[in-house]
Design brief:
The protein has four helices and seven strands, in the order E-H-H-E-E-E-H-E-H-E-E. It is of the alpha+beta class. The structure holds (2~{S})-4-acetamido-2-azanyl-butanoic acid (9YT).
Length: 171
């Protein structure tokens, strides 16, 4: 058991580096439920947003990834863009460990709300964020962020905002 993260099987959490870009892109693609952004976008996240991104590594393999940033117009909020967990790690609490590792970072000091968007069919992700709110004994409000018609081709679900907070103590 990793004492820092409470994770089994020697999964280590750390800030991403640009060398992780291909592994992150492959992980997101292999989840089959997330929007696969360009490989360039993951290199950019690793280079310019590493303070608010987390990778989970096991025996040299990227098995988890979280990307986030603090919106310039609302520095009290942390917007979580993607949470990706490898099939092999499902049900081990890795998603929540990624979120809690990020929230504990200095880069997230004074964060009062965490927001993320989740599609209606992604029940695992919905449970993750509702569970995080429960763990912090705070609220989780759900509202529509991006209706389906804003996406081209009629194949993308709507995206619902899960807004967690206020965090009642220094996160
Ligand atoms: C929290 C999370 O992973 N949201 C996914 C948003 C969107 N569908 C994407 O995959 O980037």
């Amino acid at each position: 058991m990793n004492l820092e993260t409470g994770l089994m099987n020697k999964v280590a959490l750390r800030q991403p580096q640009v060398a992780d870009g291909i592994g992150i892109w492959s992980l997101v693609r292999d989840t089959g439920v997330l929007d696969v952004n360009s490989p360039y976008s993951y290199l950019m996240l690793c280079k310019f947003f590493s303070d608010t991104c987390v990778v989970a590594e096991q025996e040299g393999q990227i098995v988890g990834f979280l990307s986030a940033f603090r919106p310039p117009a609302d520095q009290q909020t942390l917007f979580v863009w993607q949470v990706a967990v490898a099939e092999s790690q499902r049900g081990n609490g890795l998603g929540k460990a990624l979120l809690k590792a990020l929230i504990r970072r200095d880069a997230c000091k004074n964060v009062r709300y965490l927001e993320a968007t989740v599609s209606p069919s992604n029940l695992a992700s919905q449970a993750l964020f509702r569970g995080l709110a429960r763990d912090f004994a705070t609220c989780c409000e759900v509202s529509e962020c991006f209706p389906a018609h804003l996406f081209p081709g009629g194949t993308h679900e709507s995206e619902m905002t899960f807004r967690i907070g206020p965090f009642r103590y220094q996160t």
